[in-house]
Amino acid sequence: MKRASQIINDIQNNKADSLFLDIYQDESMIEFQKKRYVDAIEQYINLYKDEEVEIFSVPGRSEVCGNHTDHQHGQVLATAINLDIITVVSKDEEKVLLKDKYTSNPVYINDLDMKEEEKDTSEGLIRGILYRFKELGYKIGGFKGFSTSNVLAGSGLSSSAAYEGMIGVILSGLYNDMKVDSVEIAKIGQYAENVYFGKPCGLMDQCACAVGGLIHIDFKDNSNPVVEKIDNDFSQYGYSLCIVDVHASHADLTPDYAAIPSEMKEVAAYFGKKFLREVSEEGFIKEISNIRHSIGDRAVARALHYFEEDKRVGKITKALKDNDFETFKACIKSSGDSSFKYLQNIYSNNDINNQAVTIALGLSELFLEGHGVSRVHGGGFASTIQAFVENNYVQEYKKKIEEAFGKHSCHVLKIRKYGAMKVEVGE
To answer: Are the C-beta atoms of 20 and 34 separated by less than 8 Å?
Structure first.
């Protein structure tokens, strides 16, 4: 460990430049990251004192393919992105105290029982992760620190999963010699979110943030997903990942989201199964007429999407392994088309006059002809779309799309190869 002021000195003397390029994959952002890290360390010193500290980083994530397949125990392809949470931290004997824009209250390590009043709070997440670490036999302890995040909240980039990964990797680094497996950190984060935070969620977001890089996840056994990191240097293709915030309606979309897994499970139940992963596509096709009559057409359309999308994940994963970028792009386009036509998560049927995602996809198709591909991002209905755009066309796309959706609505990102990690400056 180094004293906080010494790390600042190392960063200002350019000893972290190559490290920041390796982590964030964008030379133009090195000066921004230097200032960001120095500011965070100075905040730590102001809050506590100039002492020996560690720095940890956890990225946000983007779903690349596998739209609404995880809740049916299907497959997904996801990636870490070069937006992250960073935390400057040191050990504390009795409590966890993190200062950031959420400003958590202290969580004492001798009091880890779940508290109803902490549902939907960062304190609940911290307490749940501490509890689960201890229950699984890992060492725990307190820490104090300062966090800052540029993972866009509400954009589908999983700021909450990144936060969970941060607590996990800090405990791994400070008390377990960085030996807690990244998938285990993801599972612990999911446990805390389900039980202590009170939100049901899958495991894709936590895995992508904790593991890093492009990862293929198979949720056939949801309690023990198979996570495969794809060995691929995405920068070789000359494309950037753009996330466009469409500034859609903030109406309650919970019923729209909930209807997708519900209808898919109705189709599975027709065959006496819990999830579509347990149903054969051939059997489903043979029974479509009867399913339409007993359940309805939209459920059938959404099941059609699931079966094809699940196969598409395998195809796009193979394309990356084979460095076949043309097939990768074709899969992104067909995934987006399937979400629009069959999954039908582009706008709410309860609010048909608000179709910002539809407009963003239409304009992207118009603007990107020959220069990239786009699709709905994440859960759908509102929020964001995703586009893979040629590097030399990114600024043109950004300019055009922001004329429609406003300044700073298009965020240009890079694929990040690292997940939850310790940042060792000047080592």
So the answer is: yes
